Recover the amino acids of this structure.
């Protein structure tokens, strides 16, 4: 079996409401659909979410690197040779979500061609995972209303609260309002997307001490290495590295230099192949892992749950798998559903999703 074609299709879907956070905002999903087709007609798909404020990639850059740089490596290759393909792509620096999407599409082909779900091929630890919902910036009342809605409608009891505003007390008060409304049993944690420096972040971690929060994600820029190390040592909350660890080497560096005490794994940026290595590293070192959300579409979330549910260590914490509900539409035929606070990993061959061709045709920006 050989890869015959590689497509990177830009498409756009509006968000039901904007999602605001310290490093940026999303009002529409300008994503790229990767479709890889083999000579015997097997099709692998994946969703790529370009995040310029996180990795510097744009919709145009993702399309360009996949069609101009990665496609020549892929066409004619055996899709089972994913490590060889990954080594080829690694010669191009950066471009994390473009590489992640290609890797997921290859796994999709592998699963479809052997008739097994990728969830099962990766190890099939548990059929479903608990879901955590990410709440963006808004007034305290709106944030509480959103969390209560997700609890009532979908049974979600874990929430990641976007923080990183100035003055910081706005966010401390938002967390307090959420804790009061949701009660002691809800899991709450914060993500500042580098909005503060280490000193401000330490003040926030201390000010939140009575609120029973679980984690503090990317409170400051990990490049501010001494401040960040001091924060990890002195913070009463575990510090999660997210955008500071877009690759295995970054995870190793941050854990080794004391820049983080827990890790967010996002299949959107490390696919399944590199995510597996990161997971093994963290498990071996006794480091907590959270399956994170790159503000993924439904197709992107299919990849996250496929991976997260496949291993014990990635399914302990609630996985961030609900923001696709804020997208105006989705382009796959098998809707993901959250109920009783959990989401099931697809069991159909591959990643378990197929394209709704009519919707792709309606939303693609490079109309054929
Ligand atoms: C997150 O966890 O940070 C916001 C920016 C981004 O790249 O991902 C989201 C969520
Ligand atoms: Mg984050």
């Amino acid at each position: 079996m050989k890869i015959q074609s590689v497509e990177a299709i830009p498409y756009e879907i509006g968000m039901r409401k904007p999602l605001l956070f310290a490093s940026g905002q999303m009002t529409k999903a300008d994503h790229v659909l990767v479709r890889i087709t083999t000579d015997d007609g097997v099709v692998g798909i994946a969703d790529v979410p370009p995040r310029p404020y996180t990795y510097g990639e744009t919709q145009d850059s993702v399309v360009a690197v996949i069609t101009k740089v990665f496609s020549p490596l892929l066409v004619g290759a055996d899709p089972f040779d994913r490590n060889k393909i990954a080594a080829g792509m690694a010669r191009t620096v950066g471009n994390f979500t473009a590489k992640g999407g290609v890797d997921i599409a290859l796994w999709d082909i592998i699963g479809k061609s052997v008739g097994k779900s990728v969830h099962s091929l990766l190890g099939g630890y548990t059929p479903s995972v608990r879901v955590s919902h990410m709440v963006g910036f808004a007034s305290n009342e709106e944030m509480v209303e959103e969390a209560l809605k997700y609890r009532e409608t979908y049974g979600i009891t874990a929430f990641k609260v976007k923080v990183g505003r100035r003055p910081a007390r706005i966010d401390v008060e938002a967390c307090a309002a959420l804790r009061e409304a949701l009660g002691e049993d809800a899991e709450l944690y914060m993500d500042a997307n580098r909005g503060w420096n280490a000193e401000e972040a330490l003040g926030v971690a201390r000010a939140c001490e009575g609120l029973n929060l679980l984690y503090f994600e990317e409170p400051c820029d990990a490049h501010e290495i001494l401040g960040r190390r001091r924060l990890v040592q002195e913070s009463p909350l575990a510090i999660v590295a997210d955008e500071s660890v877009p690759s295995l080497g970054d995870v190793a560096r941050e854990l080794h230099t004391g820049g983080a005490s827990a890790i967010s794994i996002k299949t959107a940026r490390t696919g399944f192949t590199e995510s597996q290595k990161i997971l093994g590293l963290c498990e071996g070192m006794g480091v907590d892992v959270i399956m994170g959300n790159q503000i993924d579409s439904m197709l992107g979330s299919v990849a996250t749950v496929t991976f997260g549910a496949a291993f014990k260590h990635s399914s302990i914490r609630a996985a961030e798998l609900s923001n696709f509900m804020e997208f105006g539409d989705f382009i796959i035929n098998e809707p993901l559903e959250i109920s009783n606070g959990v989401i099931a990993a697809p069991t159909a061959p591959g990643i378990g999703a197929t394209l709704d061709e009519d919707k792709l045709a309606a939303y693609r920006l490079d109309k054929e």
